[in-house]
Write a structure and sequence with these properties.
The complex is a heterodimer of chains A (about 325) and B (about 425).
Chain A lengths: L8 H31 L11 H4 L9 H8 L11 H10 L1 H31 L7 H13 L2 H14 L7 H6 L13 H25 L4 H8 L4 H29 L3 H6 L7 H10 L5 H31 L5
Chain B lengths: L23 H43 L9 H8 L9 H17 L2 H11 L4 H10 L7 H8 L6 H11 L5 H6 L2 E3 L5 E3 L7 H32 L2 H16 L2 H12 L4 H8 L15 H24 L4 H9 L4 H29 L3 H6 L7 H10 L4 H25 L9
Helix pairs in contact in B: 1-18, 2-3, 3-5, 4-5, 4-7, 9-10, 9-13, 9-15, 10-13, 11-13, 13-15, 14-15, 15-18, 17-18
Classes of the chains: A mainly alpha (about 325), B mainly alpha (about 425).
């Protein structure tokens, strides 16, 4: 913001102060995220910059905490790094297991949330939708209701929702339920919970995309002889796809970052990255946590870039110049 | 087209009809009803999913906050005796006979501990009464009243009988009373609990006060930044926006960890101050494991939720208004106060409410950096869920928190509208 020429001394002083304040707030926003990155390369098990690090001495830096992520939980920590060692890491290292769990849960929760959410958003965007506001309020509520309440409710619900493993339904559902036939301590339960938490984000982004959607396009498709299915896949979906994908990314991040529900409803088998971090922070906090944090920051930079590019694409499709 | 073959040709001729003879109004109604159903059918799968996987579990939790079966399902005889009695009635020999029968049964089923735990919620320190009496219950002989007094004279304590009476009800308000630091006196009136046991009301106030403080801090920090972003040229603003969006996209645990690294005694912030000579090495600031830790970390985490709505409102304010005010002789302060600020109110409301709603339910950050004085109500709910295992208490606290959040949510919807919620 340029200062007008007629500004007096006081205004110039204030304008300078204002810029200093803004800079300070930007530093406040970004500094914590930047700080963890160099500290994750610390050779010492401390959370502070050593003198060697400050003088940029290469001896002050190491990759040991990243290495630690691979070796934690495996049988042969000191072993020769051949294919058997890597197989051991892939199968047993606790952070690798946690990453696999996070990705599996995140993937299925995202698919579920995005599919149901997009279809519902199409309905919600129709002008003739009855009780629109009320239904919208219910669908957004998982985002508003404190996570601890949701987790508490799910804990009771999952412990009580059981089918006998001997019954027909129980034997059919056996692969996705626990050995007792309950939803608690299962991947399926965690996926359902995370899908629930991700749905509001899909609804918000997809309905926002549909606001600028030209409703005469599906009609034009229909008048040209397209079936509803063809209209959806060949006209509507390509146009709203950027919104759907960014909604899906939001849902994935929500699942990927979620720890409270996992703590309440998941068993030790469903250890995810946030849960492993949570345990790490609460018990013995080691710079390994910072190595994970750095990796997660890099992932979020990637996601942010993707969402930003998608947003620009939506605006271009809408005919608005990208900002 | 003629309507000679239509049965309802006796209708007045000026009414409009469709090609197949229906009244136009009927046909329109039918089409619009069909459109409504179609739209609703699209939403139905998701609505059903949310109702089953989210609304029903929370409803079940609410039920648990008023219904705890630990006592009445394990002590059937005594529950029956209580059923037709006034609150605060003196226990007679019949009552003690029922008690002896129930405790004998409880000893066999190993449920005496559960019964004792339930009464212990209302009357702390009474659990051992039940477990020890249950062990001896089989060998008791009438008159049972004297036999129980012989075991422990607390068995005729009116407070104990009041607590058992309360626990024998299918639906009880005792967990809600406990959640607001109240209990039932022996005569059934509601009184405050002892001074040193009053924790929840204070905790609720602290949660509201800290959330309010964090919302105000976010506003103070977010306002200038949002203004800068809204008034800078687009290219520069987009670049600076990354600094707001990157924290927004970064994992909550990562950000909390980062603050632990910065704020701890030997942390980055204290080290900088010490090396600059601002504080002495043995006099480092205690910024973590207390309220300061919670406030700083939560303000940082919630700041993007303030900046983004403010920014989207500020971007729509035409700069010409401010220029017009200046040209009419207003000082820059008057221009800001009378012209600019009122136009940003929707953004302040949206951001402030959103930050407040999210802060009220915060759990992870206070648990990690809050220490004892920085704990919020969510942490107490988690404590009752995981450590004390008083699940009805956790549910009652959660229900009160839920009610507060829903009121705020309703307010948000009225003032801003949930359809206007934007992400990123």
């Amino acid at each position: 913001m340029a200062l007008p020429i007629y500004a007096d001394k006081l205004e110039r002083a204030w304008h300078f102060t204002y810029k200093v304040i803004c800079t300070a707030v930007f530093i406040f926003l970004i500094a914590p995220i930047i700080v963890v990155i160099p500290l994750s390369f610390n050779v010492e098990p401390y959370f502070t910059f050593t003198t060697k690090m400050l003088t940029l001495d290469p001896e002050g830096f190491s990759l040991r905490w990243y290495d630690n992520l691979l070796t934690l939980g495996i049988t042969d920590v000191e072993g020769v790094r051949d294919s058997t060692w890597w197989a051991d890491v892939w199968a047993n290292a606790s952070w690798v297991k946690a990453a696999k769990n996070s990705i599996i849960v995140g993937f299925f929760a995202t698919i579920l949330a995005t599919t149901l959410g997009t279809i519902a958003a199409l309905g919600l965007s129709r002008p003739e939708m009855p009780y629109r506001k009320l239904i919208m309020a219910i669908l957004i509520s998982p985002m508003i209701v404190p996570i601890i309440i949701t987790a508490t409710g799910l804990f009771f619900f999952y412990s009580a929702t059981c089918v006998s493993p001997d019954s027909t339904i129980g034997s059919l559902l056996a692969p996705i339920l626990s050995y007792r036939g309950c939803l608690a301590n299962t991947y399926f339960g965690v996926i359902l919970a995370h899908a629930t938490l991700g749905i509001p984000f899909v609804i918000i982004t997809v309905t926002a995309t549909l606001v600028g959607f030209d409703q005469s396009l599906p009609r034009a498709a229909a008048s040209l002889g397209a079936t509803p299915r063809q209209t959806f896949f060949m006209v509507i979906l390509p146009l709203i796809l950027p919104g759907v994908v960014s909604g899906g990314l939001f849902a994935f991040v929500t699942s990927f970052d979620e720890v409270v529900a996992v703590l309440f409803i998941a068993g030790p088998e469903q250890q995810t990255i946030p849960r492993q971090m949570w345990n790490g922070i609460r018990e013995a906090i080691s710079p390994s946590i910072l190595a994970v944090a750095t990796i997660l920051v890099i992932i979020s930079i990637g996601l942010l870039t993707t969402v930003e590019l998608l947003r620009r694409r939506t605006e271009r499709l809408r005919g608005v110049t990208p900002s | 087209m003629t309507h000679a073959d239509q049965p309802d040709q006796g209708q007045e001729p000026e009414l409009l009809r469709t090609a197949d003879g229906l009244l136009l109004q009927t046909a329109l109604n039918r089409v619009s009803r069909r459109a409504k159903i179609k739209a609703f059918l699209l939403v139905l799968p998701l609505l059903a999913f949310i109702l089953v996987s989210f609304v029903a579990p929370i409803g079940q939790m609410l039920l648990r906050s008023v219904n705890n079966d630990q006592f009445y399902s394990n002590m059937p005889e005594l529950t029956l005796w209580f059923a037709d009695k006034e609150f605060g009635v003196e226990p007679d020999e019949m009552a003690f006979t029922a008690l002896a029968a129930d405790l004998t049964f409880a000893a066999k089923e190993r449920t005496a501990g559960s019964v004792g735990t339930r009464v212990n919620y209302d009357l702390p320190g009474s659990r051992s009464l039940f477990t020890s009496a249950a062990r001896k219950a089989k060998g008791l002989n009438p008159p049972f009243k004297d036999a129980f007094i012989k075991i422990n004279k607390d068995w005729v304590d009116p407070e104990l009988w009041a607590a058992m009476h309360a626990a024998s009800a299918t639906y009880t308000s005792s967990f809600y009373l406990a959640a607001v630091d109240r209990k039932r006196d022996t005569d059934g009136s509601i009184i405050q609990v002892d001074e040193n046991r009053r924790i929840y009301v204070q905790l609720f106030w602290r949660t509201l006060w800290l959330s309010g403080l964090i919302a105000v801090l976010c506003l103070l920090l977010g306002f200038p930044v949002a203004h800068l972003l809204a008034t800078l040229p687009m290219r520069k603003a987009s670049l600076l926006m990354i600094l707001v969006l990157l924290p927004f996209w970064t994992s909550l645990l990562v950000r909390t960890t980062a603050w632990m690294v910065i704020l701890q005694g030997q942390g980055v912030f204290n080290n900088i101050l010490v090396s600059l000579g601002i504080v002495a090495d043995d006099n480092r600031f205690e910024l973590m494991y207390n309220q300061t830790g919670s406030i700083v970390a939560m303000t940082h985490i919630l700041l993007p939720f303030m900046i983004l709505p403010l920014y989207s409102v500020m971007r729509t304010i035409p700069p010409s208004y401010a220029r017009a005010a200046r040209s009419l002789g207003a000082t820059s302060w008057t221009t800001f106060r009378r012209i600019y600020l009122p136009q940003t109110i929707p953004g302040i409301g949206a951001g402030g409410l959103l930050v407040f709603i999210l802060a009220v339910g915060y759990y992870i950050t206070p648990a990690l950096v809050g220490g004892a004085s920085g704990q919020l109500i969510s942490n107490q709910i988690a404590f009752h869920m995981q450590d004390s295992l008083n699940w009805s208490m956790a549910s009652a606290l959660a229900a009160i928190l839920l009610a507060a959040v829903l009121v705020l949510y309703w307010l948000y919807d009225r003032l801003i509208g949930i359809d206007n919620m934007k992400l990123g």
